[in-house]
Amino acid sequence: MGYIKEKFKVKADELNVEVKELVKNYGTKKIDEGVTIAQVYQGMRGITGLVTETSLLDANEGIRFRGYSIPELREHLPKAPNGAEPLPEGLFYLMLIGELPTEADVQYLSSMWGRRSHVPNHVFDAIEALPITAHPMTMFTVGIMALQTESSFAHAYSEGLNKKDYWSETYEDTMNLIARLPRIAAYIYRRKYKGGQHIQPNGMLDWAGNFAHMLGYSDEGFRELMRLYMVIHADHEGGNVSAHTTHLVGSALSDAYLSLAAGMNGLAGPLHGLANQEVIKWILQMREELGGGMPTKEQIETYVRKTLSEGKVVPGYGHAVLRKTDPRFSAQMEFAKKHLPNDELVKIVWMVYETVPPILKDLGKVKNPWPNVDAHSGALLVHYGLVEYEFYTVLFGVSRALGVLASLCWDRALGLSLERPKSVTTEWMKEFVEGKVDAIAD
Ligand code: CMX
């Protein structure tokens, strides 16, 4: 057993004891005053019904990973040699172990993931079986599903696995998956957009640097962007669609491959991760309709109103939980101010940031008129030459795997139960409001 695995086991044993005590002593205590009918019909907003150890979201402040905000992560996590952005290896360690990593911990993960990164040929064959026109996210989930043949958990379970060891096999699957996802993602990119000219991994680079390399980008600025990108997209507590789906499917003891593929299918929705491609598509279309160049604020305003009048959402704006500008947006804005302050598309993103919130506020129904993580990322990627925006959600997915798989390790370590909330029919709701049936909780 490697030392990170041993350390995780110690942490898991400790927390298991604490959780058992908590449930024994306070299990019947009401966590809130109950659940409203509106919450049931409107996506369960605000209902606390999940435990996720890796991160916690505050509506006004944004995400904290094990207590650390994004600016704090950028300050405290180890960096690549001569780099200024945090290494995703460090964030993964923090999410899994709950402590800031040392340089040695990060190097341990980098080299472990490098050693485990071999992807069997049948995975590439499965991707090749799809038409070249298939969406990169479809190729990505097919790739993950094809890789499921390698699941340590599934294999061990079929041989008869003691439930005390679920976490251990999930840890192995997690490490193998994270090691291999950049290779699969880069394969998809090079297959779809670069004539199938694939690039072999460079074992001297860190995980995100190597990913940038395999995509075909050698610019150090792009590598730094990938490090930051992989950190800020990794986790957003447990209730978002990709995290919740991974957790839900995992609760049936589906292995990490099956669970992650399910989560990635959720990420592929336009209200979630696909919004990053929609943002840049929307901006490029606006620019085209206006005949190219820099739009004026008034032109952007007209375009936003047109989007709304066509019954569409403004992509990259709004959030189910956040009520302020997403700190993940701000981190990208800072990166842009430092590395590419004169980029035209970036400047448009900033003008859109000035224009959209007042318009959304005026609608009166949008709870959060501010930008989310997806509002900025495309402009940064385009700057470095990654213009194929249909691929953007795959980048999000590789990063999101870090958070949801660290959480899956915790799910199995804590022996969390099969998820099975109660549902009712609208017929039941009608009888309830007429006083014919009692509230479920009563
Ligand atoms: N543009 C136009 N209308 C918007 C809007 C936006 N950006 N954001 C919210 N609204 C609308 C909703 O569609 C809803 O309208 P109806 O009552 O007519 O259905 C109303 O405002 C209330 O919605 P809300 O409570 O403020 O927001 P939700 O929690 O229901 O939805 C989200 C959140 C993200 C799906 C929504 O803000 C949205 O569609 N944004 C655009 C897509 C996007 O950027 N998604 C990425 C989110 C981050 C991520 O997961 O990656």
From TrEMBL:
Enzyme class name: transferase
Family statement: Belongs to the citrate synthase family.
The UniProt entry, under InterPro entries, shows: Citrate_synth-like_lrg_a-sub (IPR016142), Citrate_synth-like_sm_a-sub (IPR016143), Citrate_synthase (IPR002020), Citrate_synthase_AS (IPR019810), Citrate_synthase_euk (IPR010109), Citrate_synthase_sf (IPR036969)
Q: Report the protein name in the record.
A: citrate synthase (unknown stereospecificity)
Q: Which PANTHER family match?
A: CITRATE SYNTHASE (PTHR11739), CITRATE SYNTHASE, MITOCHONDRIAL (PTHR11739:SF8)
SUPFAM superfamilies per the UniProt record, alphabetical: Citrate synthase
Specify whether Transferase is a keyword of the entry: yes
- GO-annotated biological processes: carbohydrate metabolic process; citrate metabolic process; tricarboxylic acid cycle
Q: What Gene3D superfamilies does the record point to?
A: Citrate Synthase, domain 1, Cytochrome P450-Terp, domain 2
**What pathway annotation does it carry?**
Carbohydrate metabolism; tricarboxylic acid cycle; isocitrate from oxaloacetate: step 1/2
- One example GO MF annotation: citrate synthase activity
| NCBIfam families, per the entry | cit_synth_euk, PRK09569.1
Q: Which UniProt keywords apply?
A: Transferase
Enzyme Commission code: 2.3.3.16
Its domain of life reads Bacteria
